[in-house]
Amino acid sequence: MLCLSFLTVFLIATKAQLYYDELKVIINMHVLLLKEPREGESAPDPYIKELAAHGHKATLIPVLSFKFVSLNTLSNKLFQPEKCGGLVFTSPRAVEAVKKCLEAEERSEEWNNSVRSKWNAKSIYVVGKATAALVQSLGLNTFGEDTGTAEILSRVIIERENTNSQPLFFPCGSLKREVLPKALRENGVPLETLTVYQTAEHPDLEKNLKNYFKEQGAPASIAFFSPSGVKFCLEVVQRLSGEELRQIKFAAIGPTTQDAMIAEGVCVSCTAEKPSAEHLAAAIAKALQETPAGHSA
Ligand SMILES: *[C@@H]1O[C@H](CO)[C@@H](O)[C@H](O)[C@H]1NC(C)=O
């Protein structure tokens, strides 16, 4: 214990010296990430890892819980590629629903032997790298993984698709934002959506937040990952933070979430340049450096 605190003092002293010019101390602040752990990954969450690399201790609290629905309809669609012009995926969870449809051995075989190559002859649009990686694991070629937002992806789709082609098929969640369907509709690009998972507030959300604040106190930074995260957590977080609310650096994973935060009157300290663990961790680390010494947790 003594050794540890000695080491800590030494580290702080070293860091303090390093940052002496700016009179800033950046070490081991607490960051609260209001997100679900990444689906189907046993490795440590990339956001926790990236923040640890910047010297911060991050904790995840899941905001949402998910339930798959209409998997039979989804399966029928997936095995009739001739009826669609292509596919659109904007969330890893929608791809998980597809995976569920391919779990049975004979379906998987049929998919591998003939169906996926028929899809690969069409366009398969994805937003973001996490979704792209999952879609690729189904043996599909993806397009648009660098777009990052539904808005930019819509523009790419509109540029590439004909108004008189077969509809693109878009499996999505119940909380999908209307950006992509609306943009495509307005430009006459046919799209067929199917809700394949329903999203609801996580049943333990408030309890988990209370425990976190009780055990760790108010974090130095809180990151939101979706407008529904803002909707379900903001009020509780504000209540639990009390006096310390003003010192908390609020971070957003992207412009959509940032807008939802601003609409609720939150002062947003930083927004990730791209929706990735590296970009968010870098943005948070920078915002926390701007905290005057003495406010570190
Ligand atoms: C189909 O291909 C995937 C890899 O793309 C593989 O993991 C899976 O086992 C294959 N399914 C069958 C039934 O061969």
UniProtKB/TrEMBL annotation:
Which stretches are annotated as coiled coil? none
Q: Any signal peptide, and if so, which residues?
A: 1-16
* Top enzyme category: lyase
Keywords, A to Z, come to: Heme biosynthesis, Lyase, Porphyrin biosynthesis, Signal
Work out whether the entry's keyword set contains Isomerase: no
Record-given protein name? Uroporphyrinogen-III synthase
Give the Enzyme Commission number: 4.2.1.75
Which pathway is it part of? Porphyrin-containing compound metabolism; protoporphyrin-IX biosynthesis; coproporphyrinogen-III from 5-aminolevulinate: step 3/4
- UniProt cross-references to PANTHER family, sorted A to Z: UROPORPHYRINOGEN III SYNTHASE, UROPORPHYRINOGEN-III SYNTHASE
Biological process terms from the Gene Ontology for this record are: heme B biosynthetic process; uroporphyrinogen III biosynthetic process
Organism encoding this protein: Channa striata
Gene Ontology cellular-component annotations: cytosol
Known role:
Catalyzes cyclization of the linear tetrapyrrole, hydroxymethylbilane, to the macrocyclic uroporphyrinogen III, the branch point for the various sub-pathways leading to the wide diversity of porphyrins. Porphyrins act as cofactors for a multitude of enzymes that perform a variety of processes within the cell such as methionine synthesis (vitamin B12) or oxygen transport (heme).
Domain Tetrapyrrole biosynthesis uroporphyrinogen III synthase: residue ranges: 46-281
Q: Name the family the entry cites.
A: Belongs to the uroporphyrinogen-III synthase family.
Report the domain of life of the source organism: Eukaryota
Q: What GO molecular function annotation could you give as one example from this UniProt entry?
A: uroporphyrinogen-III synthase activity
Q: Which InterPro entries match?
A: 4pyrrol_syn_uPrphyn_synt_sf, 4pyrrol_synth_uPrphyn_synth, UROS/Hem4
Q: Which reaction does it catalyse?
A: hydroxymethylbilane = uroporphyrinogen III + H2O
